[in-house]
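Lay summary. Proteins are chains of building blocks that fold into shapes, and those shapes determine what they do. In this project we predict the shape from the chain. Here is one chain we studied, written as its sequence of building blocks.
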Amino acid sequence: MTRRIILLTLPALMAVTGLRAQPLASAGLSPDARSAGLAGASVAMDAHSMSVFSNMAAAGGSDLRTEAGYGFSSLGNSTYLHAFGSYFRIDDTHTIAVGARYYRSDKIYNSQDGIIFTTFRPYDLMIDLGYAYTLTRRLNLSANVRYARSELNEDNGLKAASAVGIDLGLHYRTECYTIAAAVTNAGTILDYGVAKYRMPASVRVGGAYRWSPAEGHRLTGLAEVRYNIMPKDYTFPSGAVGAEYTYRDLVAVRGGYNVASETKAAGNYGSVGAGVYIGPVTADFAYNIADSDSPMRNVWRVSAGVRF
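And here is the predicted shape, written in a compact code that computers can read:
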């Protein structure tokens, strides 16, 4: 019976994210519309309200004092992700951040001999605390600590699992380019009672290049490579490229393409996005473009925030 429940649970939880064999799969999702519009090529992005989830070191180099934002992701089949992120620059050297994500999957059905006896909606909850240190005018380093709680089912020995993870980040920015790297989700074991899993740790390296062909116009190209390093039987490479055009810091349009394994991750898909920025208020939207059988098809995200 236990094995039956696990087999029923894991595909339901992982199908949307594409991480078909790893609990806490929502840790790898882009929680905000801006990075999602770039197909997740976010490690070298400039600071934004949800940098705590991608590379906290970027927030250390921000020209702003603070940003805060909320993001909602519709992942299909009544599955969604809520996210809140923020950072605050204490002074020219120290920056702190806090963030939270709540992932809720569509219902799963526990059955025996074709008879459904319970239903359950798996969830993940993650809370982040981040710190960035400005080493030089261009170089920032960061460290995050993350608490994660995940529940796959509530039947037959399965219990909620908790874990603590850390992220480390580096962000080097000049006027024209950025070089960045991050290690994410290196942490303790998730113990679900009848099964134990490592957090989905990964290494990410990326860069960005900015070009202004005329006053008020800016083009930014981003590229990122990733390697999932944990658990050991779930290692795989992936990557993403993205481009963003911004007009006078008022409006932006974006596009990107993600490349990944079709058996261990979400496979290949594209993305488009846009943003509007009026004074301290920001709003962004992103939409995924994928094959009809892809778990990333028709996924969309919206984000809104304030900055000062």
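What the prediction tells us: The helical segments are 2-14, 33-37, 51-54, 57-60.
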